Amino acid sequence: MRPSRRGALLRLATVTAVSALLALGVPATTAGGATGTGPGAAATTGGGATTGGGATTGAAATTGGGAGPEHGRPCVGTPTPTGGPALDVLEVAERAKAELGLASVIVKVTADGRELLTTALGESMTGVPARPDMHFRNGNIAISYLGTALLRLVDEGVVGLDEPVARWLPDLPRGDRTTLRMLGASTSGLVDYVTTPGFGETVYADPFRQWTPEELVDISTRQDPWYRPGESWSYSHANFVLLGAALERITGTRLDHLLQQKVLGPLGLHGTANSFTPDIPTPVLHAFTSDRGRYEESTFWNPSWTTAPGAVQTTDICDLARSAVGVGSGELLSPAGYRELLDPGTVGLGGAIGKCPDTVCIPQTEATHYGMGVLVLGDWISQHPLFFGYSASQDYLPCEHLAIAVSTTDGPAAAGGHSAHTIARRIAAVLAPEHPIPDFG
User: Fold this and answer.
1) With 0-12 CB in 10 A as exposed, 13-18 as middle and 19+ as buried, what is 398?
2) CA 264 → CA 204, 319, 433, distances in Å?
3) pLDDT in tens, 234-268
4) Is the pLDDT of residue 46 over 50?
5) pTM
């Protein structure tokens, strides 16, 4: 049974795989030539796709701006493995694609900085094989960049985590008691506009609508907060819309430029970019969804509601794997900054408080908790976005220097949910069985 429109959206762009968090303009034209048809129906496309179906492992992609993160190297598949851990990972991806009814699965795994496997399975559209260099929406992966950018500014002495945001956002209710730390760690108490009744129906009624940050924040701030700022933990997209605005005011720099300066550039994420429109750079990984009751293309539905303008990004699988390492290892941070990334004071918060149930104010434990824009899941540092038919997962295991990046799109029979993170967890179980990735909460 397909979810209702509201129920579907409520599982789209949130930060966790927990059901509580899962309950959560005009169309753009691109060179990719979307026709609104999905795998299994006739489609036309541009973008120089390779021919043949199935995996593109070992087939070097030659077109599009798919420069990967490794200082300009193209993002292409590795040779088809014949044995060892790489074959194990490939088989996990192949089985999951069939079992979960996915249109495409793209995977990159690195260990100690060495590429273990890069592969793409399935199709972007009918007759168009998925390729490693195809771009997809990265959703809340960008929130980990917001957290890292904030911590870099703290390291540089530009700002303090515990400064009240009223200094930069004077009109924000309770801004004098809400700090930068609380926005980045999602402890402000603000209600999540995504889970607000009626929001999902509004998005699905016009998925091409361009939302403004003022509209989004107003939905949250006009409601009573769940708790006093800093008193507990609950996920709210509004925190990160506000954090983006605050970072712009603090630095006097447009957010997309700031993230480029502080995170994307230093990590060499050449295939990752912001867009203020629903456009996606070619080559495009097309997405499809049944969330409105019929299987339809959702590639160019407007993602402006998902986070702060300037952090609404697309990426490729090579950048996603590089991002997992760069963010998860604290490569750009001081030791003190890295400690804040992993626990900005969230451990011990959460649990039912006032009117906030423990399915919203989720208990934050040493084993599973929210950091500064990242999820700490056991020994892994993760993020896993899900919305509009796209699912992705970036996961890093510091003790083994192991990075897993997965992107998926839904086929007509897909059950929905965090399919990319499901695959990442299965890969982790094969490569690091002593370090499983637990569910959040």
Assistant:
1) middle
2) 31, 9, 31
3) 999 999 999 999 999 999 999 999 999 999 999 99
4) no
5) 0.86
Q: State the Cα angle at 341 between 15 and 260, rounded to 5°.
A: 80
Residue bearing tokens 């899941």:
377
What Cα–Cα distance (Å) separates residue 317 from each residue in 131, 135, 186, 270?
Answer: 9, 8, 27, 12
Q: 164 pairs with which residues across the strands?
A: 179
State the pLDDT confidence band at 70, using cuts at 50, 70 and 90. Answer: very low
Q: What are phi and psi of 410, to 5 degrees?
A: -85, 140
Tokens of 426: 């299965």
Whole-angstrom distance, CA of residue 310 vs CA of residue 330: 22
Q: Which residues contact 379 (CB under 8 A, 6 or more apart)?
A: 397, 398, 399, 435
* Rounded Cα distance, 34 and 36, in Å: 6
- Contact predicate 393/424, CB 8 Å: yes
**What digits encode the pLDDT tens for the residues 76-93?**
999 999 999 999 999 999
- Report CA-CA distances (Å) from 383 to 68, 192, 333, 376: 20, 18, 18, 9
**Helix axes 84-100 and 419-431, enclosed angle (nearest 10):** 150
Q: How confident is the model at residue 39 (pLDDT cuts 50, 70, 90)?
A: low
Q: How many residues does the chain have?
A: 441
Q: Which helix (H) or strand (E) covers residue 116, if one does?
A: strand 114-125
- Read off the pLDDT band of 117 (50, 70, 90): very high
CA 307 to chain centre: 10
Mean of all residue pLDDT scores within the chain: 88
Bridge partners (DSSP) of residue 376 are 369, 381
Task: Sort strands 390-397 and 402-410 into parallel, antiparallel or unpaired.
Answer: antiparallel
Strands (E), 300-401: 313-315, 368-370, 375-377, 380-383, 386-387, 390-397
pLDDT for residue 403 is more than 60: yes
- In the predicted model, is pLDDT for residue 410 greater than 70? yes
Distances 62 to 11, 134, 174, 283 between C-alpha atoms, Å: 35, 11, 52, 10
